[in-house]
Amino acid sequence: VIVLIGFMGAGKTTVGRLLAPRLGLPFVDTDALIETRTGASVAEIFESKGEGAFREIEREVVAEVLAGPDAVVALGGGAVNDPVTCVALEWTTVVYLDAPYSESMHRIGADPGRPLLTIADPRALYEERKVSYEGLADATVDTSARAPEAIVQEVMLRLAPEEDESARFRRVVVPLADRRYEVVVGAGVLAALDSLLPPSDDAEKAFVIAHRGVVDDALNTLRAALERRGLEPHLLDPPSGEESKSLTTVEALYTELAERRAHRHDLVIGLGGGVITDVAGFVASTFNRGMPLVHVPTTLLGQVDAAIGGKTGVNLPHAKNLVGTVYQPALVICDVELLRGLPHEELRSGLAEVTKYGFIAEPSLLDFVEQRAVELLAGDADALVDVVARSAAIKAEVVAADEFETGERAILNYGHTFAHAIEQTAGYGRIRHGEAVGLGMMAAAYLARELGRIGDEVVERHRRVLDTLGLPNRAELDIDVLEPTWQHDKKYRGGVRFVLLAEIGKADYGIEAPREMVARALERLKR
Amino acid sequence: VIVLIGFMGAGKTTVGRLLAPRLGLPFVDTDALIETRTGASVAEIFESKGEGAFREIEREVVAEVLAGPDAVVALGGGAVNDPVTCVALEWTTVVYLDAPYSESMHRIGADPGRPLLTIADPRALYEERKVSYEGLADATVDTSARAPEAIVQEVMLRLAPEEDESARFRRVVVPLADRRYEVVVGAGVLAALDSLLPPSDDAEKAFVIAHRGVVDDALNTLRAALERRGLEPHLLDPPSGEESKSLTTVEALYTELAERRAHRHDLVIGLGGGVITDVAGFVASTFNRGMPLVHVPTTLLGQVDAAIGGKTGVNLPHAKNLVGTVYQPALVICDVELLRGLPHEELRSGLAEVTKYGFIAEPSLLDFVEQRAVELLAGDADALVDVVARSAAIKAEVVAADEFETGERAILNYGHTFAHAIEQTAGYGRIRHGEAVGLGMMAAAYLARELGRIGDEVVERHRRVLDTLGLPNRAELDIDVLEPTWQHDKKYRGGVRFVLLAEIGKADYGIEAPREMVARALERLKR
User: Does A309 touch chain B (CB under 8 A)?
Assistant: First the structure.
């Protein structure tokens, strides 16, 4: 049992909810449990019985939780005043989420214009509690000015010595309400697949969708892991190439699954690039009304983008990805060893998406990519693990906030409105996706500049980052050629909308721009 | 604003959560709002400031909620002690959820073996509050020994005079966590579609999947409603019949949608029987990664079963519905006027599914079907509205508890394990689905009897209900013929499992039965 303690507003519940699934444990909030147990709200208990009685109930519930099965427990802020509870806590792992007094007050304060909470002597209460918390804590984690994700990462680190060997992998949780899953990042993750798969009693077979002859080493590693797990591996090998991302391929895969008697609890595993994971995802989401899905992306682009977030897709002659679903995998394995030997151009293309995350959400990721460009392009494992894990964490957060892209998730399309048009006019396969995204971000930067949203230095930063990675940052593009492709887009309605930066690390979506501004941005892209 | 008041355990939050969506209003729980507002739990506020301060905050929050936009509000149990709040409540609709003292105590009591809650003088508190509640209430609803659904129905009735004209329809909410939707039941509902559609700014077109020449009156009604709503109607008319429930049909529909530039916010409407709604649902769930979907079932079977719950499906040569998704519609329109003129056999087939709900969940529905069989088979609108709404409510509840059929939802398959095998060995289309379900339930009853789960009188009830509806209740079936079909089923794994009754109104799932027992049950079905 891991117990989180701290003053009100320390984030015990938020952190606990994120932490528990990473450790594969249930989460228990003692206040919530008391309410469930008594059938009365905490307010009602206080009101009808007073604080003393509440503490008695709390003591009993806490004792039971601490004696029960392994869990992450958020402890009510005042529970540490109980001596019985304090003794019980000596036998368990206690993490104190600490925050300075001023920040605690700020967090629990209501709207500052209408302060609802004015504690009689809050500083005294805070100081008194702090002493208790520090006395009980096995580890103290400073939470000031840090995002919950970062706090969880540190708690994990502090607890690491107690964890199993898979602690050497970076685990990013995609925290969807009813089907959260992990993206596990590291060198050699695939070989540990058997220990990472969520439990399932009913799975007997694993249907691996992959290209034989292309990823044979990975297939052997995967097969061994599946067999250790007691799953019967079946290889389905569809035709390769973007043109195979079709309903014909899907139908052939359905037929194979039917003939091999795929059960709805059996696993589908997509091992390969974006075409494979998109098709495998679509098939898994629609066969037997949905089968558990594992993605093993073998390109950097797949590891930082395509395999996370649940978008599946198949092309129609009319447009790419016109048929598809939003279907979340049960697990994503990002093994940087699979990237070994990839051509520079392939890594470059993936790094373009990494810089996208930097531009829209995390400036420090841009710094990292610029500083470590040589190692990244050389395939250095540690550097790759870092950018993959950080990119995955950003994507996970955005997807969790807006799974079905009704709003915010659109910022992940930064540079992509231009990029799709560039790819389509060039002819798919004639330009790498990452190169097109790089050019698209460059065009979007010029457009944001035209609109007065950003200054020259932000445009310059785009140019420099792309240069450092050896990605193109100028191109001859004409609005008369791009425009018709936008009008066919499934997101187009009454005018194209752009994702544009407000500053480095912050993007807005749904922005309209006058045609002549777009034309001027494309003019600047030519120079 | 509608305010729910009552003693702890009265079910204010439970009832409020169910009631609000029926009235199209948001739900507000004042305790929860106080916690959000202050950033502190109620316990923390009591602890740091005492009850007096809590009441002050509560008074302010309640005043703000009562002055705000229309909503259903669950009021903290003690808020009525505040004179300012009492005055404010005079201007709003107040519903008192009443329960006898003993039942209230029972509900808020913890595990009776370990009573956590022992109020000093609970009866005095209860009596005092009751006087306040009664004084404030515009309507008092007795909650004793009633399911939340029934309480909500009564609250709706008591509030009815204030509602709009669509109150003449029965509205069943399918309460899924993040995408709840309504099944609207009545005579003439389709003509009111424009007022029932959820709001959407971005929808411009509505793609109606239906058979011209079969449902022309309904199509005209629908077209007019769509035009009133400002939506451009497009008719897609796929081939008819079970054999058209294929990937070929799906691909043709995709092509039409692509050519007509269907946008992801445009509507897909399935108007027809189960084949149409299954295919329309699949297409809507996979085109543009999901489009808003409305079902307008035109068979009784569709209205009570197929169109509710989100299962979509397409057949492969290997088995029915092998490809499909779980994708919830935005709205289901059950217009009993569309059933007018349907052949008796068609109504009978639908009524078999209705009796299924009676057997697994609600004995009174069985009584109703037996008593009103003549009117139901004659297509009496009032009787049909009643059985459709009650069936939809049962299905909605089961689906909400287990959307992806990981457990409980399996009880909806009562009789269906036998029925599917019967249909498959007879050849699809040779026996109506409802007739097969009737025989399947009869076989399941014999099997439950063999296993000693139920007595002869329950078996007899099955026979009588089927007789009353003119459905067959005996058949020549052999286990050697049925068994192979089970082994192909997508749910089969390591032996067939049955849904069997424990009593009338209560079903269990996942039950194994020795082969010779199944054989004996089929023997009895022959007599």
Answer: no
| Cβ-contact A232, B460 below 8 angstroms | no
What count of Cα atoms within 13 Å lies in the side-chain half-sphere of residue A291? 34
B491 contacts A322? CB cut-off 8 A: no
Query: Is the pLDDT score of A114 beyond 60?
Result: no
A112 touches chain B (CB under 8 A): no
Q: Does A485 touch chain B (CB under 8 A)?
A: no
Task: Quick: pLDDT tens for B78-88.
Answer: 888 888 888 88
The verdict on whether A49 is a catalytic residue reads no
How far apart CA A417 and CA B37 sit, in angstroms, is 39
| A38 in reach of chain B (CB within 8 A) | yes
pLDDT digits (tens, 9 = 90+) for B340-389: 988 889 999 999 999 999 999 999 999 999 999 999 999 999 999 999 99
Q: B64: distance to nearest CA of chain A, Å?
A: 13
SS3 sequence of A328-385: CCCEEEEEHHHHCCCCHHHHHHHHHHHHHHHHHCCHHHHHHHHHCHHHHHCCCHHHHH
Query: How many angstroms separate the CA atoms of B383 and B367, rounded?
Result: 13
ipTM of model over 0.85: no
Cβ–Cβ below 8 Å for A286 and B286: yes
Q: Nearest Cα to A4, choosing from A89, A128, A124?
A: A89
∠ CA B62-B64-B67, rounded to 5°: 110
Residue-wise over A231-251: b if at least 16 C-beta within 10 A, else e?
bebbbbebebeeebbbbebbb
Whether residues A45 and B258 touch (CB distance < 8 A) is answered with: no
Three-state secondary structure call for residue B435: helix
Q: Out of A19-23, A241-245, B470-474, B478-482, which region has the weakest mean confidence (pLDDT)?
A: A19-23
Q: Which residues of B are catalytic?
A: 289, 311, 353, 395, 405, 409, 413, 416, 420, 433
Cα separation, A11 vs A433, whole angstroms:
40
